[in-house]
Amino acid sequence: MTENQKKLGLWSIVLLGFNSIIGSGIFLLPASMYQFAGDWSVSIVFITGAIVATIALCFAEAAGYFSKNGAAYVYTKEAFGSFAGFEVGFLKWFMQCIAWAVMAVAFNNILSSTFDFEENNLICNLIIASTVLLLTGVNLLGVSAAKVVNNISTIAKMIPLIFLIVVGIWYITPENIIPNSNLEPTYSLSSETIVSALILTFYSFTGFETFGTAAEDMENPKKNLPIAICLSLGIVMMFYGLVMAVTVGVLGEDVATSGTPLADAARVVSGEFGFWLITLGSIVSIAGINVAASFHIPRALLPLADDKMIPSFFGRKTAAGIPYVAIIASGVVTLPIALSGSFAELAMLSVVARFAQYIPTCISVLIFRKRYSKSEEYQSSFKAPLGPVLPVLAVLICIVLLADQELSRIVIGLGFMAVISPLYFLTQRNNNESVKATV
Predict the structure, then answer these.
(1) Rounded-to-integer distance, Cα 48 and Cα 135, Å
(2) Do the beta carbons of residue 123 and residue 117 sit within 8 Å?
(3) pLDDT tens-digit map of 1-28
(4) Cα–Cα distance between 161 and 260 in angstroms, integer?
């Protein structure tokens, strides 16, 4: 097997991206969305997709400059310096560990509720531990094994969604999804609910920022990553829009009070077979996002170790190039968090962690364009449209979304960034002492 055959090709990157964005949320989104937006639900999906695209296109252009692991860490470090890069990179890695813990618990929850063993703590803990340990083991086997598992889980999650779309589209009642119809629905979009609807949908699109974390395990990342980001976001937008259209179109206002809207819509159009296909699809979906997380997270540590932001020990690899220390470290951090159930408070870091990646990356695009404008070597394979307008608009969108968050979450996130700062300076001091000792 050649070196490239061991790496992720374009379509494997696209599937990984799809897996990174679409989790169990898609199976619950229609109910929450309808409560905020009513018959505007489908339209809001595409409006929000366009808003998210302003940020995603900045990531696509930034990815086109570099072939290194790290995504937002690399872009921030190159644009604003090592300390800023460390803050973004380490916060991102730790937050992803918490997110993986949440997803491992979510996988247990959906299994236990479906098969009715949620009262058995031993079985639940075994499922959570097995999820983290098994996927850690898969990653220790190498990129090829992770690629196979990711591709299978992504395709498996798409099958029930495609089934619902293809069969359910014939059962849509147009009045349920056409805004401003003559009907007077109980749920409708208003000035009070539009922001909530947009924010809810915005977070259902997040995940694209992790694509470049494992750039070095991808074929020709400078070319393929920007394409994969655009393709994945486009496919996700199409899926969200069609799933919303079918679910709302079939169930109407009943979607707002449904605990399992997609499964209920599938039951209407194809009976118990459809109900269980969607139910099993939701299990596969949350399993798939665990797979994607287990692949991305360890590789978020590698550029920090390579650049000596953290002890270089974390960057060690096997003879086959498997970053075994980072993989094991990520599993070791994730497992106790998942088993403790204490991640609810830690998850408050996610607000700052997410926008700490978005805002610097969008600004970095403007910096890279100016810095490398006359360089033939450093040119991105992709250019976001509208010149400086799109990055500036993306930053403004981020600021508006961040301002809508609770102040306590922002303070906790910024406090964590302050707490981890000594690690950077301690590592730099040790690096300097090591250099002096060798002179």
Answers:
(1) 32
(2) yes
(3) 444 556 777 777 777 777 777 766 677 7
(4) 14
How far is residue 38's CA from residue 185's CA, in Å, rounded to a whole number? 7
Q: How many CB atoms lie within 10 A of CB 320?
A: 11
Q: Cα separation of 232 and 61, whole Å?
A: 15
Question: CA 35, CA 296: separation in Å to the nearest integer?
Answer: 34
- Asked if residue 202 lies in contact with residue 44, where contact means CB atoms within 8 angstroms, the answer is no
CA–CA distance, 434 with 259 (Å, rounded to integer):
58
Bridge partners (DSSP) of residue 38 are 188
Residue-wise DSSP of 208-232: GGGGGGGGGGBSSHHHHHHHHHHHH
Q: How many CB atoms lie within 10 A of CB 298?
A: 28
Structure tokens at 158: 């798409």
d(CA 71, CA 69): 6
CA distance 129 to 290: 12
Please report the DSSP string for 68-113 in residue order: STTTHHHHHHHHH-HHHHHHHHHHHHHHHHHHHHHHHHHHHHHHHH
pLDDT tens by residue, 204-225: 887 777 777 767 777 887 788 8
**Residue 118 reports pLDDT greater than 70:** no
Q: Are 375 and 432 in contact (CB under 8 A)?
A: no
The CA distance from 412 to 128, in Å, is 27
Distance CA 281, CA 294 (A): 20
Identify the three-state secondary structure at position 405. coil
CA pair distance 26, 271, nearest whole angstrom: 21
Q: Taking the CA atoms of 310, 312, 313 and 314 in sequence, report the sign of the dihedral they define.
A: positive
Rg (CA), the chain: 22
Residue 177 neighbours by CB under 8 Å, 6+ apart: 39, 41, 42, 244, 245, 248, 249
Are 246 and 35 contacting, i.e. CB atoms less than 8 angstroms apart?
Answer: no
- Calpha distance 217→3 (Å, rounded): 10
Measured CA to CA, the distance from residue 39 to residue 176 in angstroms comes to: 6
How far apart, in Å, are the Cα atoms of 345 and each of 38, 200, 350, 409?
32, 20, 10, 9
CA–CA gap between residue 240 and residue 246 (Å, rounded)? 10
Distance of CA 363 to the CA centre of its chain: 21
pLDDT tier at 366, thresholds 50, 70, 90:
very high
Cα angle 4-9-13, degrees, rounded to a multiple of 5:
140
- What are the tens digits of pLDDT across the range 46-90? 888 899 899 989 988 888 888 777 788 888 998 898 898 889 888
Distance of CA 385 to the CA centre of its chain: 23
| One-letter identity of residue 383 | K
